[in-house]
Amino acid sequence: MIQNLPQLAAITLEKLTELTESWNIPRYRAKQVLQWRNKGILNPDEMLNIPGELKERLSNELICEPLQLVQRQSSIDGTRKYLFKLTSGRLKGKMVESVYIPEEKRGTVCISSQVGCVLDCPFCYTGTQGFEGNLTAGEIVAQVLAVKHDLLNEPLASEFSPSITHVVYMGMGEPLANEDGVHQSLEALMNPDGLKLSKRRITLSTSGLVPQIDRLGEATSVNLAISLHAAENQLRDELVPINRKHPLNELRQCLNRYSLGKQRHITLEYVMLDGVNDRDEDIESLARFVNRERERVNLISFNPYPGSGYAGSSKQHMNEFAKRLISKGIRATVRRSRGQDIMAACGQLKAESKPHKSES
Ligand code: SAH
Ligand code: SF4
Questions:
Q1: Pocket of ligand 2, candidates 99, 182, 227: which has the most ligand atoms within 8 Å of its Cβ, to mutate?
Q2: Has residue 44 got a pLDDT over 70?
Q3: C-alpha to C-alpha distance for 217 and 211, rounded to whole angstroms
Q4: Annotated catalytic residue, options 64, 65, 97, 124
Q5: Is the C-beta atom of 129 inside 6 A of ligand 1?
Q6: Taking a C-beta distance cutoff of 8 angstroms, is the pair 266, 255 a contact?
Q7: What is the DSSP letter of 65?
Q8: Residue tagged active-site, from 117, 124, 254, 346
Q9: Which of 140, 240, 271 to mutate to test the pocket of ligand 1 (most atoms within 8 A of CB)?
Q10: Is the CB of 125 under 6 A from ligand 1?
């Protein structure tokens, strides 16, 4: 079955060497293929120094290009949003989105882990889409490679970092509800024969699936971001419904166990909703909940979307809220929102099945 074919985007050198040897092709060829792959080139026909026979084997016996770029939008702030169509497997024809966020000294790719999401947080655009399925490791890693390819073909303005230095699992879906795909994709991103990203440069955002966070800590302990959004159970039950299954005391214990290196911290994401979770009492709940030694609060402005039913707190109020947290000894920052004009910001990702006209 096509789903079981190995994925070029996530394959290890060891496994690819095994395959090339079984095709009677010298082992050094596997290395050459991965050099192309790591540059973002997944189409065997574009791998210039590879013999025709190997190109054919790769095309027939691996899934080489799991994503087809359907649309790319560029924001006035340099952010690029990509819409991909899945080309194979169970989710063939469905769409996913990824975002590239350039800064002066770093370049971050925000990737999706699922098509849609089951968890239904009421302020989240992706949540309104319903759940379609989990991405494979190849489909997850291919998002990073596709962005790399695009940056090679069409470099950004020179004030921005031209390379991908960070990856965040903050696109569509709940990454820890897709443990197989996500764990394998993390290994592939960190593999010394792959993109060689260090775990310090990868951040996974989760709404708080406790046993899965424990397993992530044991497996890779990449940077962790938690969608907290409320530090008191009644409100969090409403804003992040998974809280009914894993309430705050359980999450608290779990975060205290998560393995952190020196200088590293857990990010607590907090989307500021006017009159909902931005009140005085919310500062008090946060002050009771946050572990000041190990955690930072990142205040996110709410990204509205048609029919959302919430309003974001004002910039001024967010700054004030941050100041008050800081006065209580909590490290708090306000996140600058990027790509808002092209709906590329947090929680705005929702791949439409009928995409607009491609950017020329
Ligand atoms: N499912 C994971 C990761 C994807 S969402 C999670 O929930 O953590 C990435 C971040 O965007 C989360 O913190 C999420 O709560 C936040 N988010 C969702 N909808 C948003 C919106 N409309 N405005 C701002 N942030 C939003
Ligand atoms: Fe899913 Fe995260 Fe959106 Fe909640 S915020 S619905 S967990 S993608």
A1: 227
A2: yes
A3: 10
A4: 97
A5: no
A6: yes
A7: -
A8: 346
A9: 271
A10: yes
- Ligand 1 pocket test: pick from 131, 143, 251, 346 the residue with the most ligand atoms within 8 Å of its Cβ: 346
Protein residue whose Cα sits closest to atom 8 of ligand 2: 173
pLDDT of 357 above 50: no
At residue 227, does pLDDT exceed 80?
Answer: yes
CA distances from 255 to 50, 248, 268 (A): 48, 10, 10
CB atoms within 10 A of CB 298: 19
Number of H-type helices and E-type strands within the chain: 10, 12
- What is the pLDDT averaged over residues 160-182? 93
SS3 content of the chain, % helix, strand, coil (to 5): 40, 20, 40
Q: Is 97 a catalytic residue?
A: yes
119-157 exposure pattern, b = at least 16 Cβ within 10 A, e = fewer = bebebbbbbbbebbbbbbbbbbbbbbbbbbbbbeeeebe
Distance (angstroms) between ligand 2 centre and the Cα of 206 equals 8
Residue 117 CB less than 6 A away from ligand 2: yes
Cα–Cα distances in angstroms (integers) from residue 349 to residues 112, 213, 244, in the given order? 9, 23, 25
- Cβ of 121 below 6 Å from ligand 2: yes
Token pair recorded at residue 196: 């060689």
Ligand 2 in reach of 208 Cβ (< 6 A): no
Q: Are strands 95-102 and 80-86 parallel, antiparallel or unpaired?
A: antiparallel
CA dist., res. 187 & res. 194, Å (int): 9
Reported as a pLDDT band with limits 50, 70 and 90, residue 76 is confident
The residue count of the chain comes to 360
| Stated pTM of the model | 0.94
Residue 211 CA to residue 86 CA, distance in Å, equals 30
Please report where in the chains the tokens 């779990």 appear, as a residue. 254
φ, ψ dihedrals at 148, nearest 5°: -60, -45
* Residue linked to tokens 């951040």: 203
CA dist., res. 95 & res. 87, Å (int): 10
* Ligand 1 atom 13: residue of nearest CA: 227
- Half-sphere exposure of residue 123, counting CA atoms within 13 Å on the CB side? 27
